[in-house]
Each structure stands twice: as C-alpha cells, then as structure tokens.
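Hello Y.,

Per our agreement to keep a running log of every chain we model this quarter, I'm adding this entry. I've kept the format consistent with earlier entries: sequence first, then predicted structure.
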Amino acid sequence: MKQNLLTILTLTGFLFPSISYAQEAVKIDSASTQAYQPFTQDSKRFNDWSISAGAGTALIQTGNITSINNGSGKTLFGYSAYFSVDKALTHAFGLKLQYDKGETRQGYANTKDHVDNVKAARTQYDAISLLADVNISNLLRRVDNKSNFRWALHGYVGAGTLAYKAYIQNPGMPYNQSLATEIKPFKEGSLFAQFGTALKYRMTNSLDLEGRVMYMMTGDNTFDGSLGVNQNNTNKVSDNLVSAALGLTYNIGKHQSHLFWHDPLQEIYYKLDVLADKTDDVEVCKKGDADNDGVCDDWDRQLDTPAGARVDGSGVALDADLDGVIDLYDKCVTIPGPVENNGCPIVTANQGQGSVTEFTGEIKGITFNLNSDKILPSNVSILSNTIDNINASGGSFVIVGGTDTRGTEVYNQNLSERRANNVKNFLVKNGADANKLPTVGRGEKDLLYPECEPATKCPEWKNRANRRVYFEAK
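Predicted structure for the entry above:
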C-alpha cells in the first residue's frame, strides 16, 4: 500500500510542470506605437488567492468494517468538513493547503444507537494535505470559444498527514465505547493520499459554489477500528473513505475576476497603452496601396488594378464569366465573349434567318460547387443564351463534363457524367434540340488547369474552373 502512495506522489510531481504551457505566449511583432505585453502571471490582472470551506458526508468504502455494504442492509453516514487556502499559479493550475475534519461510522449499527452485541465502530479524523488543483475546463476549452463561462470542472490530487481515533462498541455494554486505535499526525503510518473532482459554479466575481467528491487512501487497516473488534483479524485491506461535500470559495482581491475564471485562449496578449496622440494616423499598409484597390501591396497579386474595378481578397480584378475581360470593361458580365467585342458574343447577319450568334461550341464559365452537379443560378443566363445558337447551327455539340482532382477516379467519372446530363436536360427543357446534344463525362482527365494535380497545389479558383461543363463541336 505504501508503494501505491509513493506512485501517486510521483505522478503528482510530474503533473506540476505539465500545466505550465498556459503561461507561454506567442511573440507578436508590432510596428505601431501601441505597446503589447505577453500575458503572464506577473501582470497581476486577476485575483489568484482564495479560501474555500464546505461540509458533507464521509463513508468508509474499503476495510474490515465499512459504512457501505456492511451486512446491516443500510449505509451509515458520517460527516466531513474542509477548509483550504488556495493559490492559482496559471489559468489551469494551482495549489491548495487543505485541512479536513470528519467522522465515519461503520459496522452493523451506528455507535450512537448503543445497540448491544453488534460489530460497530466510529472514527474521528483530522488531516492536513497539499493538493494540486487542475482547472480541466481551461485545459480543454475550444480556441474559438469567446463566451464568458460560469461552470468549470476541476481535478484534485495530493497527499498529507492524517491523525485519527477509532472507537468501538464494547459487547455487552451498549453505553460504553472504548478507544481501539489512535494515530498521531506526522508519525509513521499517518501518511495518506487523496484525489477527486469538483464542479464549480461562478455565482459572483468573488464567490463560487462547489460540489466535490474526494477519495482518501489511508494506507493502513486500523482506521476503521477493526483491531478492537477482532484482535485476530489478519485482513490487511487499506481502509479508504469517500467524502462528498458542498462548499463555497471566496476569491480574494480587488480585481474583477479570478485567474481560474479567465480563458487564456481568448486573450494571449492584451493592450497596455493606447496611442500617445489620438490624432496620429495609424499606418495600415507598410508598403502602401499603389492602385488604391483596398488591398495592401504586401499581399496584392495585381498591383496595377484599374481604378473602379472590383477586386477579390488578393487584389485581382473580378471576371465573373471568366472570359478574360474584367467586369469593369465587360459589357456582358455574365455571358462569355471575346476581348475584341468587350466580353460579349459576336453577332453577325444571317440572310433569311435574322440575326444569330456565331456559335462554335466554346462556352466558358459553366462551373459547379464541390461535389455537386446542380446548375448554379449564375450559369442559367449563359445556358439560356446558348439555346438559339444550338438550334440554328447545322451541326451537333458534345456536352463534356469535368471535375477537379479531389475524390477517386471512379467517383469523379460518375460525377462528370451527371453534370453533363444535367446541363443537357436544362437545355432540352428550355427548347434545345436533344438530337444535337450528346453527352460525355471525362472525370478528372481533361483539366482546364492540369497543374492542379493534386488539388492542394492550386488556389480554389483554379479547382473551381476545373469543375466545369463545356461544349465541343462534333
């Protein structure tokens, strides 16, 4: 049993440094005149001292005489109380110097009932221990959790010294009890270990409500008083007890919150000073914004964007129909067309048949969302303007479906066929000649951007362009 206690103490020692990462801070290089400081305990922004007290019940769980399953058919409840002085070292780890006092009642009957000729005992105990306090909630809290929290799960483990007196009910003398065993503190046999868990609720900034369950391992077999009941008892089972208590924690200090109630993942850095002169302009872009498109030159991929052009996050002018003419100059923003015709399809006169578009089968911009064969609203106008050209043409056009390189080859082949068929169904439903529109799926074999193999090598706009349907003259 002593070896088991030594193991627990060793594990407790290893636990101390494992929590220290909560104080580590990432370095941030700030070019502005604002002052930032890594968050450490030295900043003293939060209360870190507190006192705790509570009371509840205590029961011997293992021993020669127990409070539970003792043969009497009932559980004999004792009492327990605790008082501790607590110090939080980080957001997730602290220490508690704790005093416990209580009394257990064990055997076939309660000694206060003064029942004659039964095995009954009670044990009064006092204990002082040093406990490690681990704020499990702060260790497991999600990085993206920005909300204030009022519940926290804690874990306790530690060791200390135990003093107790075990009394027994003397047979034939119902009103007489005698001392069976006495252990004094800081003596051989007084070492014990305890561990447990607690659920805390933040009632106010200064006061917490706590419900806890603790397990105490005494390491000897006389705590239950069995030595006085049976002098020949050779059972060496450790007399261990369980206590459950409800208590309060008072957070000492003038700060608004306690260190344990602040999530370090929400604010690793905090602002110490504001700009000395409020009227000073803050330099947003170190290298400026040469084309005034709202994207700093540090990460602008197109430094000569024309004035008035809409850009994406990387500073590239938008081209909704992907025809090579940016939206600023495109006269047909949603319909692809050549550069020489300002992004619109070329229209010529056709004698006896009115005006029709010269349709060669080349259409750009019919793309799809990832893992989808649904025709997007942005493609409807492109396909609708194609129907008259298909019907007026003397030839046929193969509708070809394609995918990007995500997924298996077999899956992509099937997906490309569904995309081609959905486009055909849309065209036929809106008046196109079905006989002129055979379909084929080419999966990932005919990429618009072949360098996107695998897909992770390319930005998403290139992968989206590979998820397409296009036409080939037959």
